[in-house]
Structure to design on (580 residues):
């Protein structure tokens, strides 16, 4: 393809094989040459009208990997609204991540580089899988409008960004373009389906088979409750900061024993345990003295090894170094409210990881599992030792880091697709989409992909409005519950790094922990370790999840009883049917 007026040339490789079509743009074929225009290549949109449809021609929907997954029905009036999101989230070395309005929830991100279109469910469908170039990709989905009367979903690849370059300490910036093209070798595989395979559930099965093609199912078969326990917090003081104890070693053991005495199987992680608390995790791999004496520490480590308690590591970098770690320099005022905190939050620096894996493995010697926050969902361009490293380099560094723990159960928070074959546990799995008005139907596409291969845990139930509805959602999606807790009152952290957590006190939550676990334990025990093979809405309030171990789960979100076959499902309840 040669755009002579722009001076831009590249090759497009198209391969047809059976019911699939592969489209590739090799990066080494991209050429910019002198022309009348002074423009340079910014983005390439690939086949934007492939699979496009007019509402008068076909009913159906677009599937987008927004959060757990979402459907955009085509039976909507002409609409100028559209969906657009970077695959794996934005490059944090480029984009200002400041949240300026706490009243607005941030959108869910894209963890899977896949999308699809259905022209009449059970008739015809198309699924697209971005096999190469995903860290530079962006998925867009448009409903038909008066200007362009076609529903369409497609991928755009970024080869240059426009970024804000700081020019003063007062926050002044100038807009610049990336000097060099990103090394994005693009390859998209389109699979065309029909009849029973023309559904979002069939797309999930296809993608799961491709992602885990060389692996057998390994997900936990025993329902567990994930419990993250905060050890210490960092509090501002007259000279710097100081740490305060939120849970000592002995109190952590008491929490564990209290819950296991109630027949609760735990996936317990001690977090913020190290000297300096959150800010120094993976930099100071020594336990904070406020957690207890050396003898108490040793007693805890022995207890942890015997009772499957792990340590959580927050893979972060020092805020003072952020201006020199990235390709275009971070603006030091960015990322002021990750997790809703009021302080400057450290940025993730994958360049430091290679020297830390051995230290971490030595520290967790004999432990049965470990967890990481910040390694699974971060894409960041950076500059290390004066050398520019593009966004996909950070993906490779984080992945190589996680691979070093393949001999132990490894949990990662909000993992992207490339992490899934290498971990055993996925934390903070989204339980819905962003709930955009034009994409009102949330589906468990992400859960379908992970089911059977990765044990899934939801975000903390402490901050869920209705534990009863949350329990039904966990049962429907096959996801395990989670809580975060402290022994000391939550109010003690109000000025600290975890000041955004407004309710964590174990004494206040222990009964709800037990109630939620025992509510979901039986239905999850029927499906844990199995794979979801189908999911659909039986009616407005009744959802059906079909598992490959001959279990079918009906969840009734309505308040009135519903009769399904010979069974009556009470309001706000569920029913598990075991087929011969």
């Amino acid at each position: 393809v040669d755009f002579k007026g722009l001076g831009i040339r590249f090759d497009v490789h198209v391969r047809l094989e059976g019911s699939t079509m592969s489209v590739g743009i090799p990066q080494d074929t991209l050429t910019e040459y002198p022309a009348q225009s002074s423009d340079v290549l910014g983005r390439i949109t690939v086949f934007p009208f492939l699979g496009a449809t007019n509402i008068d021609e076909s009913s159906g929907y677009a599937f987008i990997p927004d959060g757990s997954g979402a459907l955009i029905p085509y039976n909507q009036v002409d609409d100028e609204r559209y969906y657009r999101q970077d695959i794996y989230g934005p490059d944090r070395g480029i984009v200002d991540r400041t949240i300026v309005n706490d009243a607005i929830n941030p959108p869910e991100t894209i963890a899977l580089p896949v999308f699809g279109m259905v022209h009449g469910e059970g008739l015809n469908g198309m699924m697209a899988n971005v096999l190469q170039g995903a860290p530079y990709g962006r998925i867009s989905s448009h409903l038909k409008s008066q200007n362009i009367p076609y529903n369409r979903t497609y991928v755009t690849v970024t080869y240059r960004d426009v970024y804000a370059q700081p020019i003063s300490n007062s926050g002044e910036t100038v807009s610049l373009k990336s000097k060099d093209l990103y090394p994005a070798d693009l390859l998209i595989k389109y699979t065309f389906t029909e009849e029973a395979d023309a559904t979002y559930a069939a797309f999930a099965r296809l993608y799961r088979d491709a992602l885990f093609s060389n692996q057998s199912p390994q997900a936990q078969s025993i329902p567990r409750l994930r419990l993250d326990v905060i050890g210490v917090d960092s509090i501002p003081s007259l000279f710097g900061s100081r740490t305060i104890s939120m849970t000592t070693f002995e109190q952590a053991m008491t929490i564990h024993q209290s819950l296991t005495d109630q027949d609760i199987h735990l996936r317990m992680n001690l977090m913020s345990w190290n000297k300096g608390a959150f800010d120094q995790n993976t930099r100071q791999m020594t336990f904070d003295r406020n957690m207890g004496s050396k003898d108490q520490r040793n007693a805890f480590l022995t207890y942890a090894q015997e009772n499957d308690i792990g340590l959580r590591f927050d893979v972060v970098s020092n805020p003072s170094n952020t201006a020199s770690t990235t390709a275009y320099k971070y603006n030091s005022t960015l990322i002021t409210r990750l997790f809703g905190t009021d302080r400057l939050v450290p940025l993730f620096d994958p360049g430091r990881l290679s020297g830390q894996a051995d230290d971490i493995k030595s520290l967790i010697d004999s432990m049965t599992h470990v967890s990481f926050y910040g390694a699974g969902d971060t894409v960041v361009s950076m500059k290390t030792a004066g050398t520019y490293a593009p966004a996909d380099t950070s993906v490779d560094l984080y992945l190589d880091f996680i691979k070093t723990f393949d001999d132990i159960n490894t949990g990662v928070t909000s993992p992207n697709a490339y992490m899934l074959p290498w971990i055993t546990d996925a934390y903070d799995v989204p339980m819905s989409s962003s709930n955009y008005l034009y994409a009102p139907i949330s589906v468990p596409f992400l859960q379908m992909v992970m089911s059977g291969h990765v044990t899934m845990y939801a975000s903390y139930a402490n901050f869920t409005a209705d534990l009863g509805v949350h329990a039904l959602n966990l049962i429907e999606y096959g996801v395990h519950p989670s809580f975060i807790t402290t022994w000391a009152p939550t109010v003690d952290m109000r000025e600290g790094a975890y000041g955004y957590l407004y309710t964590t006190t174990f004494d206040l939550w222990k009964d709800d922990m037990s109630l939620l676990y025992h509510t979901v334990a039986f239905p999850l025990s029927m499906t844990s370790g199995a794979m979801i093979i189908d999911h659909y809405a039986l009616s407005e309030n009744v959802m059906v999840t079909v598992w490959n171990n001959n279990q079918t789960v009906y969840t009734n979100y309505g308040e009135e009883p519903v009769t399904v076959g010979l069974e009556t499902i009470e309001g706000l309840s569920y029913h598990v049917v075991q087929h011969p």
